Amino acid sequence: MEISSKENTHFFSNNTILPMDRSSFKSESSSSKEKQSCCGGIKIFLGALSFVYFAKALSGSYLKSTITQIERRFDIPSSLVGVIDGSFEIGNLLIIILVSYFGAKLHRPRIIGAGCLIMSAGTFLIAMPQFFMGRYRYERFPSTINSTVSISPCLQDKSQTPLSALEKSQAKINAGCEKEAGSSMWIYVLLGNLLRGIGETPIQPLGITYIDDYAVEENAALYIGCVQTVAIIGPIFGFLLGSLCAKLYVDIGFVDLDSVAISPKDVQWVGAWWLGYLIAGVISVLAGIPFWFLPKHLPKPESRKDSSTSSEQSKFIVEENKDQRTCYQQQAKLAEMAKDFLPSLKNLFGNPVYILYLCASIIQFNSLIGMVTYKPKYIEQQYGQTSSKTNFVIGLINIPAVAFGIFSGGLIMKKFRIGVLGAAKLSLGSSFFGYLLLLSLFAMGCENSEVAGLTVSYHGTKPVTDYEHALFSECNSGCSCSQNDWDPICGENGVTYVSACLAGCRASNGSGKNTVFFNCSCVGTFESSQSSSAVVGPCQKGNECPKMFLYFLVISVITSYTLSVGGTPGYILLLRCIKPHLKSFALGIYTLAIRVLAGIPAPVYFGVAIDTTCLKWGSKRCGGRGACRLYDSSALRYVYLGLTLVLGTVSIFFSVAVLGVLRKKSSPQDETLSANGERGTCGTKSRKDNFVNSDQLIQSTYWPEKETRL
C-alpha cells in the first residue's frame, strides 16, 4: 500500500508538472510569435513609408524642374511662378497643427494613406490645364509653319498677303483671345500644389512617430535614417524625369511633330511638363495603398512595454491614469498646459543660442531655397542650355553631392566625437567656405547674346540704351513690323534678330525648322556681314560659354557638398542647446519659422528680382505682358548670385554670434555647456555624454524639405 501510494503520488506529481511545462512553452512560443509579428509589421510600415517619402520627394523636385516650362506655357512672370512654388508651404501650414495633434489619436496609417490620395489628386490637378487650354501656340512667322501661301516677312505692302489668309488668321486669334480672356489656367497649378502641401502634411510627423513608438528602441534611429536616405533618392529621379519630359514637345500625341517649327534650344520651347505630373500622381496613389491595410497599433516590443517616460518628451504630454480619469482632472490638465505655454515660449525665446541659430537658419534657407528654385532658369539663360540638359545635370550631379555632404557631416561628428562647440564650428566653417566658393561663380558667366536692337545696335556697336526704340532702324524702316513679336532668326553674321521682319528679310524658302530667309537688309548692313541670309532660331552663345558651363558645374557641385556638410552638425547644435522638456516645442517653432519666413517668401522675391533683368518680354494673344524671352546675362548673374551671397553672408554673421555665445557659456575644463542655467542653455555634462545620441541623429537628421531644396 505504501509503495502504491508513493507511486500514485509520484504519478500525480509528474502529471502536475507537465501542464506547467506546456504552459511555459506556450508563453515562450506566443512571445516569440508576438516579437516576429511586431518586427514584421514595423518593417512593412518602414517599407511603405520609405516609398511615400520617395514619392513626395520625386513630385516636389519635379515641380522645381518644370518652373521654366510652366512660366512659358502660361505666359506668366517669374514672380508669379514663385507664388505657385510657395503655395505648397501654405497648404502644409494650413493643417499641420491639426494633423500633428489629432492625427496621433486616430488611425495614423490610414491618415497617411488619405494624405497620399490628396497629394496625388493635387498632382493630377496640376496637369489638368494641358487638356483644357488647347494646343500651345508659339510666335512664328506664317511662312515657317508649313504655309502654302508665300508671304514676305517684310510686309512693305499688306496687299502682298491674300485677304482670305489674313482674315482667317485674325479670326483664329480673336476666337482664341475670347477663350483665354475668361480663364487663368495657372490657378489650377497653384491649387494643385496647395493640395500637394495638404496631402504631404501627415507623412512626416505621423510616420516618424509611428516608427518611434513601435520599433525596438535601438533600431528606431536606423529605421528613420533609412527613410531619409530613400527620400534623397527621390529628387534624383524627379530631375531625371524632368529631363526626359523636357525633351518631348508639350503637345506630343496631339499634333504632328514634323510641323513644329521650334527646337528645344528655343526659348519658346515647352516640353511635356504635364506628363511627369501624371506619372508622379500614379506613384503617389500606389504609395498610399499599403497604409489602408496596416493596423492602428502594433504590439510594442518587450523592452519598451514597461519603460518610463523618456526625457525627450515634452512636459506638455501629461500621463493619464485610466482608473482615476475624471472630467475635473482633464480640465485641470488642460488649464495647466495652457498656463505653461507662455512661460515655455518665453523660456525658449530667452535662450540666446536658440534665437540666434533660428535667425541664422531662416536667412540661410532663404538663400538656399531661392537659389535652388531658380537654378534651372539660371543655367538655361546664362549658359544657353536646354531644359532637358539642365535637369539632367542637376539630378545626376548636384543632388548626389548634397546626399554625400549630409552623410559626411554625420560621419565627421561620429568619428571625431564632436561636442556642441565643435558642431557650431563645423556648421560655421561649412557655410563660410560654401559661400566663399559661390563667390567665384561671378567670374564664370557668359556674355550677352548679340541680339540686334537689344544687346547690340544694328551696326554692331555696344551697348544699347534705349531698348524701346532700338528695335527699329533705317534698314527695317520700310517694313510693317511689330516690336512685341519674338520670332528670332540667326543671321550669317552671327547676330540674332528679334524677327525676320525686323531683320528686313524680303524673301524666304522652305518651311518649318528648315526655313531660310534671303535679302535681309539689316543683316547686310552689319559691320562684319558678308551675306544677307538668315535661318530660323537664335544664334548660339559665344565659344567660351561651354567651357564656362563646365567650370560652373564643378564649382556648383563642390559648393553643394560643402554647404551640406554643415546640415547635421547644425541640427545637433539645435537639439543640444535646449532643455529636454522643450525639444518638441522648439522643433515645432523652428519648422514653422522656416516654412513661413523662408519657404513661402523666398521664391517670390527672388522671382521679382530676376524679372528686373528681363530685356524682352513676350506678349499674350489678348494683349498684356507674357513670359520673359530674353534676359540680360550679366544683370541676371549679379542679381541671382548676389542675392544668394548677401543672404548667406548675413546668416554667417548670426552663426558667428552663436559661436560667440557658446564660447562664453562653455566651461574652461570642457567645450560643452552646463545644464544649470535658468534660461535654457545647452544641457550637456561632458563631451562623451553630449554625443550619446549623436549616432541616432546622424541617421535621423531632418529639416524642412531637405531632400528637395538643397
Structure, explained:
This protein has 710 residues and is mainly α. It folds into 3 domains: 216 residues, MFS general substrate transporter like domains (Growth Hormone, Chain: A); 210 residues, Growth Hormone, Chain: A (Up-down Bundle); 93 residues, no CATH class. It is 61% helix and 4% strand. Strands 2-1-5-4-3 form a 5-stranded antiparallel sheet, with no helix packed on it. A two-stranded antiparallel sheet has the order 6-7. α1 packs antiparallel against α9. The longest helix has 64 residues. The chain is globular.
Quick overview:
The chain is mainly alpha-helical and 710 residues long. The chain has 25 helices and 7 strands. It is globular and about 85 Å long.
Keywords:
single chain; about 700 residues; mainly alpha; Growth Hormone, Chain: A; 3 domains; five-stranded antiparallel sheet; two-stranded antiparallel sheet; 7 strands; about 60% helix; disordered C terminus
Rg, alpha carbons: 32 Å
CATH superfamily of the largest domain: MFS general substrate transporter like domains
How confident is the prediction overall: mean pLDDT? Answer: 78
Estimate percent helicity.
Answer: 55-70%
Q: What's the arrangement of strands in the largest beta sheet?
A: 2-1-5-4-3
Tally of contiguous helical segments: 25
Task: Sum up the overall morphology in one term.
Answer: globular
CATH first level of the largest domain = Mainly Alpha
CATH topology of the largest domain: Growth Hormone, Chain: A
- Do you know the CATH architecture of the largest domain? Up-down Bundle
* Total beta-strand segments: 7
Structural class: mainly alpha
Distance between the termini: 90 Å
Largest sheet: 5 strands, antiparallel
Strand percentage, roughly?
A: under 5%
